[in-house]
Design brief:
By secondary structure, the protein is an alpha+beta fold. It has helices spanning 40-53, 70-79, 92-99, 128-135, 198-207, 211-221, 232-254, 263-275, 278-286, and strands at 2-3, 9-10, 14-18, 23-28, 59-63, 82-88, 107-108, 139-153, 162-175, 178-191, 290-295, 298-303. A six-stranded mixed sheet has the order 5-6-10-9-8-7, with helices on both faces. Helix 2 (70-79) links the parallel strand 5 (59-63) and strand 6. The radius of gyration is 24 Å and the shape is globular.
Length: 307
């Protein structure tokens, strides 16, 4: 145990998960003062081998800027079956490069709807928070639009050139009803995906944010990160054993039978179970609610509901 970046005592686990099923592939317990990317390249290699043994023919690695292992990119690209999308640091040199680009190099990013309206679109309620912020004259940041561009880029530790996707947001800084000025915020993604559009790269990179929900479930669902023991290796074993409960939930959904002419419907029924929160899974699948009835000289147990 050691002091982390925010001054608290604890550990700093490394988690590598399979996005298809939210299963943890690699779990490494580390001292609290270790950087987030430490040993990531080693365990990403192990995760690749594990996925290949499982039969996956194409493997996509995703991570934020700290996980851009530039000394490993050429090796992963040479494998042929590994694609990566990693965040890149927003430096002055990167911003200067995209600011010098022509206006025609940028394309407006249109995000797809979160869901398809089956009947008619519902009326949106009033945004009360937005109204109060404007009425009281607080500084407000309002997104205007999003744009993408791309250029070739070779990291310092690489011998190959890759695609750098530049993603920027124009934000209006408002105070009350007045717009003070506009500003850009930049994000960069480094990838060896040479077929997808820049928009698809950005959407795929944004999908990595669902990893935060998995971390929350491991913390508060299966309570794997409580660290109840007295040393790093004991807590590491506890971490791995507790996470097996989460993996069993995913396997429970994946092992549902798919038979007859209902394949598509059964596949749709699997997904909610695989993505279900652990607390709900316990209540719906694991625990059997019972009613204990005390009568004269005997106790009757009656199952109220069971799955």
């Amino acid at each position: 145990m050691d002091i982390s970046y925010n001054g608290q005592w604890g550990y700093h686990p490394l988690l590598i998960s399979l996005d298809n099923t939210k299963e943890p592939l690699c779990l490494v317990n580390r001292s609290g003062n270790r950087p987030s990317h430490e040993q990531a390249d080693e365990y990403l290699d192990k995760a690749i081998v594990l996925c290949e043994r499982a039969g996956f023919q194409c493997i996509l690695l995703r991570g934020d800027t700290d996980f851009t292992q530039t000394w490993k990119l050429d090796e992963w690209d040479a494998r042929g079956n590994v694609t990566f999308i990693f965040g890149a640091d927003d430096t002055r040199a990167m911003e200067a490069r995209v600011q010098a680009a022509a206006a025609t190099d940028w394309r407006r990013l249109e995000r797809p709807a979160k869901y398809q309206v089956q009947t008619q679109e519902r009326q949106k309620p009033e945004n009360v928070k937005e109204r109060i912020v404007r009425e009281r004259g607080y500084t407000n940041f309002v997104l205007q639009w999003e744009e993408v561009a791309e250029f070739d880029y070779r990291p310092a530790r690489c011998k190959r050139t890759y695609r750098m996707i530049a993603f920027r947001k124009q934000i209006a800084v408002e105070k009350g009803q007045e717009v003070l000025f506009h500003q850009y915020r930049y994000f960069f993604y480094l990838t060896n995906d040479r077929t997808s559009t820049p928009e698809q790269i950005v959407f795929s990179a944004n999908g990595r944010c669902d990893q935060e929900n998995l971390i929350e479930q491991l913390k508060n669902g299966v309570k794997a990160m409580r660290n109840p023991l007295d040393n790093l290796h004991s807590n590491w074993a506890y971490l791995v054993m507790s996470n097996l409960a989460w993996s069993l939930k995913a396997w429970c959904g994946l092992l549902l039978p798919v038979t007859g002419g209902w394949d598509a419907r059964h596949e749709q029924e699997k997904r909610p179970l695989v993505r279900m929160e652990f607390k709900r899974f316990l209540g719906a699948i694991v625990r059997l609610p019972c009613q204990i009835v005390r009568t004269g000289r005997r106790i009757n147990g009656g199952i109220v509901s069971a799955v």
